[in-house]
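Ligand: heme C. Inputs:
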Amino acid sequence: MKLRLALAATATFAFAATAFAADEARKPDVAKGRQISETVCAACHGADGNPPTPAYPKLAGQLAPYTFKQLMNFKAASGKEPERKNAIMNGIVATLSPDDMRDLAAFYATQKEKPGVAKNKDTVALGQSIFRGGIVEKSLPACAGCHGPNGLGVPNQYPGIANQWTDYTVAQLKAFRAGERGNDPQGMMRTVAGKMTDAEINAVADYIAGLR
Ligand code: HEC
Ligand code: HEC
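Predicted complex:
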């Protein structure tokens, strides 16, 4: 419990540096975001951020500051490697301005995410206990301690993770564990995933897919 509180406290300003709302004079333009989504992103993520196949992550319903941060992280600052590496997305964001990213993030936040399902009855209990209580012997903090009791996230701090495709969640947890994804503030997710076995990752990812 102590650990969970300490971790949560350090994360309070996790997204501050990326300044979703930096340009307060300009409100995000949801209609413009929809237009870019329909023309550039729909082929993979679905026009409303609900992709038809688990090959691409769901974006609908995600908190806008998180989506904005990911788009910024996929884009390389001049002379630097992008903070989040993915061959497809690193190419896609090349043509997007920060305002386009704000508009897209605001648009997806207004869309409703299609519910997912947990498929593996044998591991739901393990997944639920990791999500709600962590694993005390390993000092693994509860996912719910940061991502919220229903996995819906906390604006400006933690993304929503509920309803996401199991395969995508598994892939991200393994990428954090291997250090291949390293754009998490203060290494929070690398620390969490670093303590998890494949079986624990699979169980919690499956449980999260059916979370409401
Ligand atoms: C050709 C397919 C393709 C297109 C087109 C595409 N994406 Fe993606 N996107 C992906 C893949 C694959 C990933 C998963 C990357 C990973 O595994 O890290 C992804 C990941 C993302 C993520 C991270 C999601 C998360 O939960 O962290 C965001 C945000 C995103 N895309 C937004 C967009 C936007 C906005 C557009 C249009 C401007 C777009 N994408 C167009 C394939 C695509
Ligand atoms: C100490 C706080 C904290 C805890 C505990 C935590 N997370 Fe996270 N998690 C984060 C933060 C912060 C991010 C956003 C990283 C970024 O900005 O890219 C994140 C991102 C994620 C993502 C990526 C989402 C996406 O759409 O790509 C997944 C999946 C995830 N967490 C799952 C979990 C699971 C499962 C647990 C429990 C085993 C957990 N998290 C525990 C803070 C936490």
